[in-house]
Amino acid sequence: MNNDIERVLISEEDIEKKVIEIAESISEEYKGKEVILIGILKGSVMFMSDLMKKITIPCKMDFMAVSSYGEGSESSGVVRILKDLDFEIRDKHIILVEDIIDSGVTLTYLLKYLNARKPASLEIACLLNKKDRRKVEVNAKYIGYDVADYFLVGYGLDFAEKYRNLPYVGILKEEVYK
Ligand SMILES: O=P(O)(O)OC[C@H]1O[C@H](OP(=O)(O)OP(=O)(O)O)[C@H](O)[C@@H]1O
Ligand code: HPA
Ligand SMILES: [Mg+2]
């Protein structure tokens, strides 16, 4: 598996530091409020669980499953909801937790979908931001790292469902997906 990686872009140690920073900001800024973290399956799973463990205020977790990439390395542009929320989010403070913003299509769709349910607030916490690939603008309150336009895997990110279990974020060798 490691042989398919061109190089490590963000190490396990750096991810951990960044997760702690984001968790501290959230703990401070949402003090006294009830927060629900919504993880977007499956890519957000590692970030979601590490982040939640470092948040020091009471918070709940829920998940949605959507998919737009299928087996490929390019977004199809069509977002499908595979699993909806368990919780009612009206008047709640919501933080959407994502591994990566690429075209922005997934989060734009989700913001619109969730805003229709009238949460008290709706923000985004995302570990990776691939700005140069944006098709639709998305404003995320908490961003871990701005990254260049490489196809990335690890720490939840996959290619054809593989590599999610790598503990770092790495650049996938082009020959693997081209
Ligand atoms: O900004 P975008 O271009 O929409 O891309 C970002 C989304 O794509 C990936 O998910 P994917 O649909 O591949 O599902 P997964 O999380 O199960 O890997 C990633 O986890 C984000 O959710
Ligand atoms: O770089 C990426 N890697 C894996 N999944 C993704 N979904 C959007 N961008 C990426
Ligand atoms: Mg994916």
UniProtKB/TrEMBL annotation:
Q: Which UniProt keywords apply?
A: Cytoplasm, Glycosyltransferase, Magnesium, Metal-binding, Nucleotide-binding, Purine salvage, Transferase
| Pfam families assigned to the protein according to its UniProt record, in alphabetical order | Pribosyltran
**Please, one GO biological process term?**
guanine salvage
**Pathway the protein acts in:** Purine metabolism; IMP biosynthesis via salvage pathway; IMP from hypoxanthine: step 1/1; Purine metabolism; GMP biosynthesis via salvage pathway; GMP from guanine: step 1/1
Q: Where located? A: Cytoplasm
Q: Which cofactor does it need?
A: Mg(2+)
Q: Which GO terms describe its molecular function?
A: guanine phosphoribosyltransferase activity; hypoxanthine phosphoribosyltransferase activity; magnesium ion binding; nucleotide binding
Keyword Mitochondrion attributed: no
Catalysis: reaction(s): GMP + diphosphate = guanine + 5-phospho-alpha-D-ribose 1-diphosphate; IMP + diphosphate = hypoxanthine + 5-phospho-alpha-D-ribose 1-diphosphate
Q: Does the keyword section mention Magnesium?
A: yes
Instruction: Name the GO cellular-component terms.
Output: cytosol
Identify the EC number(s). Answer: 2.4.2.8
* Coiled-coil ranges (or none): none
UniProt-listed InterPro entries:
HGPRT, Hxn_phspho_trans, PRTase-like, PRTase_dom
- Name the enzyme's class: transferase
Question: Ranges for the Phosphoribosyltransferase domain?
Answer: 14-159
Superkingdom per UniProt:
Bacteria
Q: To which protein family does this belong? A: Belongs to the purine/pyrimidine phosphoribosyltransferase family.
Stated role: Purine salvage pathway enzyme that catalyzes the transfer of the ribosyl-5-phosphate group from 5-phospho-alpha-D-ribose 1-diphosphate (PRPP) to the N9 position of the 6-oxopurines hypoxanthine and guanine to form the corresponding ribonucleotides IMP (inosine 5'-monophosphate) and GMP (guanosine 5'-monophosphate), with the release of PPi.
Protein name from the UniProt record:
Hypoxanthine phosphoribosyltransferase
